[in-house]
Amino acid sequence: xxxxxxxxxxxxxxxxxxxxxxxxxxxxxxxxxxxxxxxxxxxxxxxxxxxxxxxxxxxxxxxxxxxxxxxxxxxxxxxxxxxxxxxxxxxxxxxxxxxxxxxxxxxxxxxxxxxxxxxxxxxxxxxxxxxxxxxxxxxxxxxxxxxxxxxxxxxxxxxxxxxxxxxxxxxxxxxxxxxxxxxxxxxxxxxxxxxxxxxxxxxxxxxxxxxxxxxxxxxxxxxxxxxxxxxxxxxxxxxxxxxxxxxxxxxxxxxxxxxxxxxxxxxxxxxxxxxxxxxxxxxxxxxxxxxxxxxxxxxxxxxxxxxxxxxxxxxxxxxxxxxxxxxxxxxxxxxxxxxxxxxxxxxxxxxxx
Length: 353
Known about the structure:
Layout: H1 5-27, H2 42-60, H3 70-83, H4 87-112, H5 115-137, H6 140-162, H7 170-188, H8 195-212, H9 215-218, H10 223-245, H11 255-283, H12 294-314, H13 318-351
Helix pairs in contact: 1-2, 1-3, 1-13, 2-3, 2-4, 3-4, 4-5, 5-6, 6-7, 6-11, 7-8, 8-10, 10-11, 11-12, 11-13, 12-13
């Protein structure tokens, strides 16, 4: 069944490429379009067909239950329904896939009994809520909080599992639970005066990760370990920026775009970049850890371009946010293609040895 990964991963990457392309058009680039291009579905392609598939397949790969592979298959199959403009079917398939992911998360906890797995179960539940809300409202802003909680609890759960190898005290873990509890409650009561608490909670989670995660340890090392440390710290910096953007009180319609992309691109996609040299070879069952200093160029380009986009959003400079959006996508694609190139080159070299 693990051979399915060679079908699922390419389809997930196609979802990403299509999502980026329609995102370029949405932000204002006059690229070729057709009536069948799913321009309104940029968000679903990225968070459902791409991220939903990537996260679920990573979880499924460590389990030995065959039926669990149905979950990433469902998530990535939404791509075909979106391409053929069967949007309601695509959303329904993603909802069913997210329900399956809940069962996988629970099974994962039963197998390994790690405390971070509990957080990932909570995150999985919020993915179900997000797709449910989106199907009912067809509104990204209405679904944003649930998707944010899904990714925060999933990412923090994974990081918490890794801290079991580090000297993290029980008091420190309790502190993390307090921050997560605060963001959980304040997100539900966001429009009832607790918006400030959401931002403070994001700052609290970010500083906890900076202090207790492996980032500060890895940054003192070399090669892909150092790259991991740098990428993690930059992701946590964007989580802090996301919190800051949430405090801005203005009638600027682009602030939502700035907050959305500082979180999803700055925090979430940077976390993918950080772990790509480890995750992709593991999923593909390749004993290669791809690293090249050129990867820093793409990481820097992603952050600079995101800063341009956010700056353009905050100060309503249309051309700047448009340029930043384009360079965001190019940077992320360039990084993934670089990883693929390094893996392929190393495999060729090994085959000739």
